[in-house]
Design a protein that fits this description.
153 residues, HIT family, subunit A, 3 helices, alpha+beta, five-stranded antiparallel beta sheet
Amino acid sequence: MTEPRTDCPLCQTDGGRLVWQGARGGALLRVIHAEEAGFPAFYRVVWGAHMAELSDLSEAERQWCMDAVMAVELALRGMQPLPAKINLATLGNMVPHLHWHVIARYAEDSHFPAPVWAAAQRPRDAGLEATLAAQLPAAEARMQTALERLCTA
């Protein structure tokens, strides 16, 4: 395990509202709600230790990390209306700490079909955002249940 870095925001803070944290085989993972304006269903799966690349993990750790990403994706796919797409991204250019973005996207969202980091294509839809925000507790409960199962598998 590497030491936390003082220059890394994901080493120093949760990086958003903590939804779940768990351990398996000495490794830690957490899921946070990113609270990105305009994207209510934006989550991050964050590796506990400071690692830059997925390939820095052991095979078992990589599998656990990807299983966690899948658990978050599946929980978001249960939202209504159904997402048009689930975006998965691991960039790390700005924050080189291993983390995955898991974002439920809707054809009506302000940036669709462009990435959430691109320029807006249309104004934000407050009604859609409120509808999605109201469903987050149920989606997060689905995430937590699936993620807890992964810790005991």
